[in-house]
């Protein structure tokens, strides 16, 4: 369970740092770094929520990760 908690802590930290950096205008919402951090953070939380057997949390984080991945791929293809 220690690994799951580590993933949860790192994932949550990534999402919060990304959110704060966006709010203070250090990174833009339509940037690769923003979407990469969101994808990674949400992906780690998908695993964590799975280990908790929390279906609602799992669905939320899975959708969050998939949306971030979609926009990240869109940005990569665009360039």
Proportion in β-strands: under 5%
**Helix and strand succession?**
HHH
Report the radius of gyration as a whole number of Å: 13 Å
Tell me the distance between the termini: 40 Å
Estimate the global geometry from the Cα principal axes: globular
The count of β-strands is 0
Number of helices: 3
Kindly state the mean pLDDT as a whole number? 96
Query: Into which percent range does the helicity of residues fall?
Result: over 70%
Structural class: mainly alpha
Tell me about the biggest sheet? none
Low-confidence stretches: none
Quick structural summary:
The protein is built from three helices and no strands.
What topology does this entry show?
Elements: H1 2-23, H2 32-52, H3 55-78
Helix pairs in contact: 1-2, 2-3
Structure in words:
- 85% of the residues lie in helices and 0% in strands.
- The protein is globular, with a radius of gyration of 13 Å.
- The mean pLDDT is 96.
- The chain starts with a helix and ends with a helix.
- The protein is an all-alpha fold and 79 residues long.
Keywords:
single chain; 79 residues; mainly alpha; 3 helices; 0% strand
């Amino acid at each position: 369970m220690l690994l799951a908690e580590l993933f949860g802590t790192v994932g949550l930290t990534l999402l919060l740092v990304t959110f704060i950096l966006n709010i203070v205008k250090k990174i833009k919402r339509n940037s690769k770094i923003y979407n990469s951090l969101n994808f990674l953070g949400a992906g780690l939380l998908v695993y964590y929520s799975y280990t908790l057997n929390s279906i609602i949390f799992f669905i939320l984080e899975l959708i969050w990760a998939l949306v971030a991945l979609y926009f990240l791929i869109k940005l990569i293809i665009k360039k």
